[in-house]
Amino acid sequence: MSADRSLYLGVDVGGTKILAVVATAEGEILGRKKLRVAREGSLGDQIAAAVSEVLAKAGTTVGEVAGMGLAVPAVVDSRAGLVVHAPNLSNADAHLRDQLAERFPVPIFLGNDVNLGTLAEVWRGAGRGVANVVGIFVGTGVGGGVVLGGRLLAGSEDQAGEIGHMVVSVDGPRCGCGNAGCFEALASRTAIERELREGLAAGRTSSLREAAETGRVGSGMLAEALGAGDELTTEIMTRVGHYLGQGVVSLRHIVDPDMVILGGGVMEACGDFLMPLIEAEVRGDHLRRSRDVLRLALSELGDDAVALGAAALAHAETSGQPFRPTQTEEGGCPAEADPAPTYPHLDSVSFGAAVVNGKELATDLYIRAGGKLKARKKKLARGRYGTSHVLGPEELAKVIKGGPSLLIIGAGFQEMVRLTEDAEAFLRAQGVRWELLPTPEAAEAFNAAEGPKALFMHVTC
Ligand SMILES: [Zn+2]
């Protein structure tokens, strides 16, 4: 495969800031430039300034750039290159793309910001190498995107993936869009703030009273109130977890994705609290219990996601190819070159030893998603927890390298091994399901499981 040396510009045009990046065809960011949006003056001029600066920072020129993507928090007509409706961009011009095309002689493509954030997660984030992904971003509003077979779902009017306006509570609270009971009207930070105010008006107390009354409850404040055990906040956020979980269940039935990625300010700050609730709702889905392979993951790209997604759009459009993730975790190797791994077979296990592919091993071991068998270094757990019977996130990070969807843990003959709370949170955040079983059952379960899978097995103390 010949290396594509083209560069791509991606610009995240937000209500308060512009982030421009220069990225390679593999999605590596070579330069970033962030500017605050000034309310006066043309938005096109400000974007052009950010683009010129980021090109200089990356040590390149527009002549080296194969395409530019513009991500806007708006309804767009990407074929006509028009911003159709942008309630959160006060000085947006419908012809933003053409204004920039006058200054930069490269193909320019326009897209919706959260749609592109989802595409970026598939390119370089939590969804690397995953074909079918739904992204849900929970912040001031709720946005999302759907990537099928590596391609962003556009729909006939370019408005697919408006997950925030899926009705999850018929005749529920009024949404900013005018409809009632939208996902956004129940699960966004704006909805949380409204519920706090309603609770306070009904005589409840909360450490977030002042923030709720002045109208700016930040995601970090929610996380703090949860950490401090604030009762009203905990109650509201538990409901939010319920709504998000039910939203994921509905989306799963419609889209049948391999993975759902959750991101945005609220998820980033309160993911530890919300993910287990969402996970529980999804696992409790009666319709699909027998085929329970959906992976849930937290987004990994944070502030870069949307700008990188805009670069991904430019890459996909200029290469004329359905977008495909080409980068593995180690970097450099195209994913399509990896053959399906052959997993070692657990022939038998007895107290103190396991026989793997005909070979006896008298040690704890693990097998990674890529099929690699490794001997466990027990001193990692002993040094940290004083016993080899505790599995923490550091050790699990080694075991789940390569991204299994299922981790089978052989807990020993006496089932002594347990996971720390952070280890469980870590696995959830990585979208890895796990099963803790007595070691002999774990060996059988691993042999029988469909990949991508990993095994950790406690054989001897
Ligand atoms: Zn709505």
Protein topology:
Blueprint: E1 7-13, E2 17-24, E3 29-36, H1 43-57, E4 65-72, E5 75-77, E6 82-85, H2 96-103, E7 108-112, H3 113-124, E8 133-138, E9 142-148, E10 151-152, H4 183-187, H5 189-201, H6 209-214, H7 219-227, H8 231-255, E11 259-263, H9 265-283, E12 295-298, H10 305-319, E13 346-350, E14 353-356, E15 359-361, E16 365-367, E17 373-375, H11 379-385, E18 390-391, H12 393-399, E19 406-410, E20 418-419, H13 421-429, E21 433-437, H14 439-448, E22 453-457
Parallel strand pairs: 1-4, 4-7, 8-11, 11-12, 18-20, 19-21, 19-22
Antiparallel strand pairs: 1-2, 2-3, 5-6, 8-9, 9-10, 13-14, 14-15, 16-17, 16-22
Zinc ion (ZN) binds near residues 177, 179, 182 and 184.
Question: How does this model look, in words?
Answer:
Helix 3 (113-124) packs across helix 10 (305-319), helix 5 packs antiparallel against helix 8 (231-255) and helix 12 runs parallel beside helix 13 (421-429). Strand 5 (75-77) and strand 6 form a beta hairpin. 35% of the residues lie in helices and 23% in strands. By secondary structure, it is α/β, with parallel strands linked by helices. The protein has helices at residues 43-57, 96-103, 113-124, 183-187, 189-201, 209-214, 219-227, 231-255, 265-283, 305-319, 379-385, 393-399, 421-429, 439-448, and strands at 7-13, 17-24, 29-36, 65-72, 75-77, 82-85, 108-112, 133-138, 142-148, 151-152, 259-263, 295-298, 346-350, 353-356, 359-361, 365-367, 373-375, 390-391, 406-410, 418-419, 433-437, 453-457. Strands 3-2-1-4-7 form a five-stranded mixed beta sheet. Strands 10-9-8-11-12 form a five-stranded mixed beta sheet, with helices on both faces. A five-stranded mixed beta sheet has the order 17-16-22-19-21, covered by helices on one side. The site of zinc ion has 6 residues, from loops.
